[in-house]
Amino acid sequence: MTSLVALIALIALLGACGGGGGGGGSASSPPGGVHLQVVSFGDSLSDVGTFAPIASAVGGGRFTTNPGQVWAQDVAQYYGDTLNAAFTIGVDHKLSAHGGFGYAEGGATVSTPANLNDFLVDVIGNVEMPVNQQVSSYLAAHGSFNSGQLVLVWAGANDVLRAGSPPAAVTTVQAAANALAQIVGQIVQNGATHVVMINVPDVGLSPKGIASSDGGANLTQLSQLFNTTLNAALQSNGLQGKVIQIDSYSWVNQIIANFKANGFAVSNTGQACDPTKTPDDTALLCSRATYVTPDADQTYMFADDLHPTTRLHALFAQFVEQQIAGSGLGH
After folding, report:
1. C-alpha closest to that of 180 among 141, 205, 153
2. Which domains does the chain have, with CATH numbers?
């Protein structure tokens, strides 16, 4: 495993390398049938390159099988946009505005600042913005949302992962889900007319979950609790008819149950990024050089023990696009 000392030395040598963004879609005729500017809030599942200036030193940059894209970038391209990071971190361990609309950051919770994994604190500092702060940062910079935007919101997995065990975990997860519904309400109240709200996937069925002592049972239970609480809060706040709800929980479980039919050779029982070659065994620092096989980004579902591979991200993006179309927006 590459040591942190070697990684930090390499970062210091290379400095703030580029990264973050992704290829642009067709400006003249986006496949989505309508031009939309995409704004994204959330955590590592949607992070388009907050930590790329440092992680790119070893070929990383996003929490997937780099140099692949995450689902939010794919969706942005579908609607003729390019999604870049709103903030990036430099070798000084500080965030700076980068001009993009990808506000999602790895490690972010819904509303409570929380420590990242220890290695991230050591290498890049503890700087992640919770989602409520991401939205506040957007509004401070841009004032409001508009009808020409597609706003993506996917958060809560870190709240589930860090909640611990019941009964205390129940209160933590319910509070996070209720807070997320309030944040979505804030987005709608500030002018957003196309809001995609994604629930928490079954964290218990991630490689991390199934490797835990209870086989992921607690994480599954908390994932379900988050989602039922979120649904109830959206309904009670009159928001269900104002957002496009995406059920990632059921979708991911269906893909796992039928992984071969969906083109994967390995489901949730392995990871594409070789733990012995990938620094600190995290998808953020995964690259083609650390894949377990040359095509692991396409044949595995998970990059590390939590994050999707390039192919799984792409399939999820297609599912989201279909759900958006079903709401009457675009094709």
Report:
1. 153
2. 4-326 (3.40.50.1110)
Separation between Cα atoms, residue 252 and residue 313, nearest integer Å: 11
Q: At what angle do helices 310-326 and 248-257 cross, to 10 degrees?
A: 130
Cα–Cα distance measured from residue 75 to residue 318, given in angstroms and rounded to the nearest whole number: 8
Give, rounded to a whole angstrom, the gap between the first and last alpha carbons of the chain: 46
Q: How many CB atoms lie within 10 A of CB 215?
A: 13
pLDDT band at 318 (very low <50, low <70, confident <90, very high): very high
Residues in the chain: 331
- Tell me the one-letter amino acid at 270: G
User: How high is the pLDDT of residue 305?
Assistant: 97
The distance of Cα 309 from the centroid of its chain, to the nearest Å, equals 12
How many Cα atoms are found within 13 Å in the side-chain-facing hemisphere of 294?
Answer: 0
Compute the distance between CA of residue 100 and CA of residue 88 in angstroms, rounded to an integer.
10
- pLDDT tens sequence across 241-287: 999 999 999 999 999 999 999 999 999 999 999 999 999 899 999 99
**Number of CB atoms found within 10 A of residue 197's CB:** 25
Is there a cis peptide before residue 67, judged by omega within 30 degrees of 0? yes
